[in-house]
Amino acid sequence: MASARGEFSSRFGFIMAAAGSAVGLGNIWGFPTQAASNGGAAFLLVYLLLAFILAYPVLMAEIIIGRHAHANAVGALQQIARGPFTRRAGALTGRVGLVVASFILSFYAIVAGWMIAHCLSSLASLAGAAEVAEWLTSFSFGRNASFVVVFMLLTIGIIAEGVHDGIERWSSRLMPMLLVTLGSLVLYVLTLDGAMEGLAVYLLPDFSAALSPQLIINALGSAFFSLSLGVGTMLIYGSYLNDQENLPLLGGLVTGLDISIAVLAGFLVLPAMYVALHNGVEIFNSAGELISEDTLIFLVLPELFTSMGLAGAFLSALFFFLMSIAALTSSISMLEVPVAYAIEEHGSSRRSAVVLIGGVITGLSLLILLNFEALFGLVITATTRYGQPLLGFVFCIYAGWIWRRDALLAELRKGSPEIAGTLFWRIWPWHVRLVCPLLILGIFAQNLLG
Ligand code: PFF
Questions:
Q1: Whole-number pLDDT of residue 1
Q2: Which of 152, 262, 363, 422 could form a disulfide with 27 if both were Cys (CB 3.0 to 4.6 A apart)?
Q3: Which residues contact 356 (CB under 8 A, 6 or more apart)?
Q4: Does the keyword Transmembrane helix apply (predicted)?
């Protein structure tokens, strides 16, 4: 029976929604360019290792706590607390998480707006409307603000429909579309001149670059951002799962999909850069390094597309459409965090919570746009470098130290009794208790020092 608070109706729906949250702008342009400048396949190996030793266990902690409590992060952490102090600290952690999720959405909506604008700009070029196309790629307040509003309206519209009709239905439609678009773009770009050179840079490992301590810390941070950890997104999605689901399997599938799509995006972005080089577009800075991520996506790729004429405009529209979808399935998961809290802890109706909170976050985005130089980078650093790792640390402490061990194991066994004899069963509780918090503290310390 579907519960009154909403539930995913199928395993497929949950996987699409959770993978949709994880797969976002971070995967498609963050990961490939980082890999390119940091040792190619060697970076990939480090990233894979970290995803499985850190990100997957923390993801599991969030999903298990959420499914056990069938509540938002504030309610859930209070449920597994053991006394007044841990109850209050749990409620505080949940609230900080929803504030961080809201701030992540406020900058994410700006970038996602650029993606939609670039997509429409390519369509406008195809239609011969050069002036409109130019305005759509101009960095004006009017353009930026309009597309923040467009993107937030899409996010608000989906979340207003609820867990099944909104999140699940739209993720199940958009994620397969994303996969097909990404796959087709990869296949096409690999046929172009220069693509193989990019592929070589991506696939030939350079271990000297990939094994530096700074780089390991970076890969750890990106794995964390990539799986949407710490802010309660995965916890709230887990809370909409029924008790029959096999959680380690679902968590493994979501992690696997997230990583596979990041790796697949590397087969698009790296070859595309070298195709651009082949077409005379500059891809290295004066120091001989690959240019940075944002320049790559908003300068190199559009130049590449322009140099390819009509086919280029079509490809460009497709590429930015792909980015917009990836962003939308992530943004809905961010908005659901504060909305679920308002519904469950303050008795709001879903519609009024979505409109009010969505409106406030849109206001925050506009505020950032008005003070772009000062606020944009600051909000990204505060939320992703500090907020997410620190909150992830607290989740590990709750799963590993505060929650009663037998209750945790009983929750894990619910949908997967066969897991009792496996290695996962014996390792994971200790791992999330000791290894994960220490690793996260490591990242955090490094962030503070570096
Ligand atoms: N995982 C998303 C990405 O890789 O783009 C970003 C993200 C989504 C971060 C949801 C945090 C979050 F709660």
A1: 38
A2: 262
A3: 342, 348
A4: yes
